[in-house]
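Sequence in, structure out. First:
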Amino acid sequence: MSRPFDKGHLTEAGAAPVELADAAALGFERHPALIAELSSDLNRLNDHAEQWHDLAGDSIEPSVMAAPEWLLPLYEHMRKGSGDGDVLLIKDSAGRGQLTGVIPFTRAPYNWGVPLAIIDSWLNDLFFIGVPLIGKAAPQTTLETMLQGAEDLLGARAAMFRLLPQSGAFAESLRAVAHEKG
């Protein structure tokens, strides 16, 4: 049986003021609240090109395929014919909406004959590495937001990343999120 904490013996007499320690000094980082935005509009994607370029240079795992210099022209070319492929942009919800993730994907309502709505790496003859751009500041939070955004915006219950390195910062972050979220 538990007892309530008795505060009767605590007094303010002789108590020294205590300042709260800085979270960063303790090893805890404060991460901004992130939001997921779905985009299939080339003009809207071009609006993010400068931040996107910066993210490509500051991602946990470099991916030339997901950099705007490669993906935007490819996206324009490939979408003209098939309409295939979308991009999830993960941004902080405060300030100017700094990009923390760019995830090119396709929608897959069925896989292996199973009706399970998922997002899948956007792969084709000219985009053949499935590593998205994930910023260094909060990779796990960015991946969690990506998964939640895929569910909220598309009804996707899972994400499949194909043609990834088995080790590295992205693989480690993805494993950590999978372990935490199940």
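Second:
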Amino acid sequence: MLKFRQMGLAGLLVSALLMSPLGFAKGQAVKLSLSHIEKIKTTEESGDELYFSVTEYSSVERPRQITVPSFPTYWLSKHLSNVNDVVLWEKELADKESVMLVISLIERDAPPWNVDDLIGTVKLKISNDHGKLKRAWSIPNAAETKRLDDNKNEFQMTGDGGDYKLSLQVEQEKEVSVQKAR
């Protein structure tokens, strides 16, 4: 008992934490941004109304779908020069968690007369392996999407008669401590 009195409250808390079945894993805050988008050709003569659909499939959570900008907002193709450094997705990945992101550029139309048009899609798998992020890009449909530059993650999307070039960036924001059971 004397040893516990000498350790003080801080020492007791540290001892209790070390002996408890809880530990701390290295989580990672990560985000995917649209660095730049450029219109080469629109799908419609009067211009396009564009948005991104990002679907996240996590190894530990339920899937979720995000639209950027959020519905019912969209970007007009004639104003894309003003669209830079937009966060498309962000999350704190737990240790050993991986996510598959399906990132699609879509041209919005007015239902029920016309459905939205898919211009292009890329996939990104991100894994957190003990605080180190691993990334792998893939293209599900090479007929409508090409990778232009491996180092800058530049893509050209040409589905439904449109033609757009874009750059995507993955950033590791910070390391976070995530408490988990051992």
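Remark: Residues 12-23, 178-182 have pLDDT under 50 and may be disordered.
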